[in-house]
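Q: Convert this sequence to structure tokens.
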Amino acid sequence: MLDKSFKEICDGIKKDVKDTQLEIMVNANTNLVNLYYRIGKTLEENSKWGNKFIDNVAIELKNTFPNLKGFSIRNLKYMKTFYNEYKDDAEFVHLGAQLPWKHNITLMQKVKDKTIRKWYMKKCLEEGWSKNILIYQIDTDLYKRQVENVKHNNFNLTLKENSDLANNIMKEPYVFDLIELTENYKERELENKMIERLKNVLLELGSGFSFVGNQYKITVDNEDFYIDLLFYHIKLKCYIAVELKVGKFKPEFGSKMGFYLTALDEQVKDDNDNPSIGIILCSSNSNKIVDYTLKYINKPVGVSEYKIFNELPNNLLKDFPTEDELNMYMDIDEE
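A:
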């Protein structure tokens, strides 16, 4: 102990304090949501008191606890809805108790299908989404893009391990917030905008992606080649090369990506890394051409379309959070 530096000692204490603070916050949130569930149950079981019952309960609670938030008429109605929505499914109650209250309200309001809602609840816990990021993922229909839509890759054929996890990182299509792009943008402009908005790009790619570089140089036989975007995926433990293509998918894109992946595996990855994976993003593609191409490539490659905000319908664009909102992680704040 005496050999430890003052900084090491203080760092250890600070880590313990932060870990304990987090534990207290998590437990406090769980206790709060469970309290709201019990209040909702009481409100439902006493509905016979009539339409003004909840209003009168809100007044009584306000008089008794004047400094406490969370007992407005509207919030009490949310508690009643929360109870009625989940009273017959213990897993829902358990998941809801782990999420901030405003996440629960958002999910009840925006996702009516309970199977899909449960998926979003689990993703919130896995990814640590703020409320605004949750809204963004719902508004861009992440469930459909990641679960329901057909994804085109050869991972089952080319990966001995982690093919399911690799498949789960794919989306169809990807949606990027790059609204400053010119109308007839080029691939390099698309890449540069992605670098400028890297935080949002990483959000869209999903958890586990760590940015390595753009125009990443690899040299073969004294000739230089450049990968548009290179990432390392912490969960898959492999490098992921991303190529950006403006226009339709062409079979030669697959061959070029296979070359890049071979070079990465030979020159960059080490013995502890899994085989590198390629993702080709095109503004449009032909599913049959993609599938034919992937059948003859012996490297793991996925192909997907991408969309940018100014290519989406205006009625969907108006509901998107701003960049500032995407970067803002909200504290738990009950009414």
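Residues 227 and 260 are 7 Å apart (CA to CA).
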